[in-house]
Amino acid sequence: MDELLKLRDKIDELDAQLLPLFLERMEVCGRVAEYKRKTGKAIFDAEREKKVLENKLKMLKTDDMKTEVYDFFNSIMTISRVRQSKLLFDTKNRVHSADLVKKSQTFKHNPKIVYFGSEGAYSEEAAIGFFGEGSDRFYAAKFEQAYTALSEGKADYAVLPIENSSTGTISEVIELLVKYGLYIVGEIYVPIRHCLMGVKGADIKDIKTVYSHGQAFLQCSGFLNSLDGVTHEEYYSTALSAKMVSESNDKTKAAIAAERSARLYGLDILASGINDSNGNTTRFAVISKTPHIDLKCDKISVMFTLKHESGELARVLDAFARGGLNLMKLESRPIADRTVDGKPFEYRFYADYTGCLLNDEVSSITDMVIEETQDFRILGNYKSFADA
User: Fold this and answer.
1) Of 44, 116, 217, 284, which is the active-site residue?
2) Residue range of the domain that includes 316
3) Residue 382 has pLDDT above 90, yes or no
4) Where are the beta strands (DSSP E) in the chain?
């Protein structure tokens, strides 16, 4: 025990020597930040950091501690970048996130809403939940039709499903958001309770074909597998499936949709609560042509790509952690028609984290992450539904 105490005392002694050197290094970093402010140089210089790390490793006489030394200096440089980013922050120099804030507008009074699906769809329920029962709204049968309506000024906002608790992110909605250059300005969660429905007088034993959106099939796979001899036909949306079955007046056809759709289109519910998860919930995004940022906004959604080099993702995650930003979600998806060295599967990252871009520290850390990534895009800064 005495030996352990002596070793700990020695570590404390070494730490006491390291601390003033560390503080001196941070003071020099501050002067570097000031130089970068004056010259307009970027905070992150990948080639410079790569050479620094290589030189540090060359100083070692053996390779025993190569990994540890690399991690040590890599961490110090990450801390330095965070420090520089904080020091560089002011209204003039916030060139990335500031652009988004400058575009920001407030929510429109009596807006026109486009939602996905048809009357009776879960998207309509989300639109009503966010904007009210009396809101002026119309539907689009396809996701891209909703984006087109918004881009062409036929609607002020679009309400679209963006993520499901059972099946995950709805990739098409995210990809189209990037394609059209639009912004998430709000979100709302809607509990999903799928029902199997048919025309009046139909029996579940009569059903030969079930129609619905692909997401509904995924969310009800267990129930569907229990139906012998029944085929599944993907249709535009859950609500439009119900409408089509109603208009067909065919007892061999059924739809998976919300109970509201059954009432609206005069269908009988053959089975209710057929989704695999009782807690099935869909997150709907409220989308606009312009960002809507105020002090109540506490959630940021972004998308970016990285170089295919060792440690790139770790460096970004470290920046979030050291900046005190809570990363709520991070997922990757392959980029269509993009390859690396002739090979497929170059990935784009989608992330949600807490914060408001009107906050100096959040904005400066976001700008630092922008410096360290490629094709970075802020998809929106909005109020999370949990706090709505």
Assistant:
1) 284
2) 92-104+293-388
3) yes
4) 112-116, 136-140, 157-164, 168-169, 183-191, 195-198, 209-212, 231-234, 253-257, 268-272, 281-288, 299-305, 327-334, 347-354, 374-382
Q: In what order do the strands lie in the sheet with 327-334?
A: 327-334, 347-354, 299-305, 374-382
Burial class (CB in 10 A: 0-12, 13-18, 19+), 71: middle
> Which one of the listed residues 78, 167, 238, 282 is annotated catalytic?
282
> Which domain-ending residue is among 57, 88, 119?
88
Determine the distance from the C-alpha atom of residue 132 to the mean position of all C-alpha atoms in its chain, rounded to a whole number.
Answer: 25
Mean pLDDT score, 273-297: 94
Composition of the chain by helix, strand, coil, percent to 5: 45, 25, 30
Is 284 annotated as catalytic?
yes
Task: Give the pLDDT of residue 384.
Answer: 94
Quick check: is 143 catalytic? no
Q: What is the pLDDT of residue 345?
A: 61
DSSP state of 335: P
In the chain, the amino acid numbered 141 is: A
- State which amino acid sits at residue 334: P
Quickly tell me which residue has 């918004």 as its tokens: 150
Residues 251, 325, single domain; the answer is no
Query: What does the alpha-carbon distance between residue 166 and residue 278 come to, in Å, rounded to a whole number?
Result: 10
Q: Is the pLDDT of residue 266 over 50?
A: yes
